[in-house]
Amino acid sequence: MATPRIMLLGAPGAGKGTQSANLADHYGIDHITTGDALRANKDMETEYGTPREFMEAGELVPDPVVNEIVEAAIDEADGFVLDGYPRNRSQAEYLESITDLDAVLYLEVSDEELIHRIAGRRLDPETNDVYHVEYNPPEDPAVEDRLVQRDDDTEEMAQERIGVFKESTLPVVEHFDATGDLVRIDGEQSPAAVWSDVRAAVDAAIDA
User: Which of 5, 117, 121, 122 is catalytic?
Assistant: First the structure.
């Protein structure tokens, strides 16, 4: 089976994590997220310092450091799906300079649905399992009783996160749309239907 190089774009709550995991499993490729890459290489020396220095200070890790960390992850991967990178136009331009992508996918979901998905999430503090009050409630009443809402899953924070996405990452979507490389996927379908469209788009890109 081919080992494609895929970028998956979408706002918070669009389902990138679920579909990235599907892609990694189906094609046998690495699932690369910025957070995981930074945590795995937090002591990697760069011209600007290590990721640990910024993370422990509670500061945003600068683009050049993130770029180097992601590049290292890509170099070690035999095919990959990027989830959460690039976050802005500068990172996108850097990515284009270091690798050729086989598929660029964008999960389209309305703001209303994104907020509904995020604000409905609940966390089981004992197991760290994540549920949704409507889409995926727990079957055990005891689990339901101990569920909590994370601070970043409130409606107010959801709106803020979507706003950041529109300001920083939507230009990345527009850039790849302009080059003709972007494939838009209806992210408001069921997860199974979204996965069917995602897989078809990647297969078409590989066979092109």
Answer: 121
Instruction: Quote the CA–CA distance of 4 and 26 in Å, as a whole number.
Output: 11
Q: Is 16 a catalytic residue?
A: yes
161 as an active site residue: the answer is: yes
The model's pLDDT over 58-103, given as tens digits with 9 standing for 90+, comes to 788 889 999 999 999 999 999 999 999 999 999 999 999 999 999 9
Helix (H, G, I), strand (E, B) or coil at 131: strand
Active site residue 89: no
Question: What is the residue-wise DSSP string for 146-162?
Answer: H-B--GGGSHHHHHHHH
pLDDT in tens, 134-167: 999 999 999 999 999 999 899 999 999 999 999 9
Active-site residue, 39 included? no
